[in-house]
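Troubleshooting entry. Yesterday's outputs looked truncated, so today I'm pasting the complete records for two proteins to confirm everything comes through intact. If either block looks cut off, that's the bug. Protein one:
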Amino acid sequence: MTRRNVKEMEKRALSVAKVGEKGQIVIPKNIRDMFNINPGDTVLVLADKDRGIAIVSNEEYMKFANSIFEAQSEPLGE
């Protein structure tokens, strides 16, 4: 395996999570570590009937959303 392939593998993870009686899932530790998700953090859950469910860092999503609002406040063509 090349050095580049090893680096690409470090960016990916595959795991299984079981849904509990209350609909809760536990994000596997290796994935929590990969995304620096800690107890008490807030995550955003996105769902699309055709594409599935995604869990996104709320902090990163808010940065993205704020950048959209900031871009909207700038006049076009400048």
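Protein two, checking that the full record survives here as well:
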Amino acid sequence: MTQRGGKRPGAGRKRGSKASHTLEAQVMREHLIQEVIKEKEPLISALIARGKKGDVQALREIFDRVLGKVKETTKIENEGLPFQIIEIGKHSPEKENK
């Protein structure tokens, strides 16, 4: 009887192998990087020109690349009152003992 599913020895993609579309994407990415390196001056100038015209996306891209992305912070205030932190989804052994 031939097995038609489940775990079989030698089944599936071999460890470390890559799909053809992944290999094509890598080649395209390398080509794009080389083209950007060749054309970096006009690309940077165009981005700066868009930023000068008030393009918020261009400004954000410039500042994120030069200064780094701003880290999102959350400030928790409770006006000095105590508060309880509740962990959701954790198994609590205290509930079993009661």
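Both blocks look complete. Sanity check on protein two: The two ends are 54 Å apart (CA to CA).
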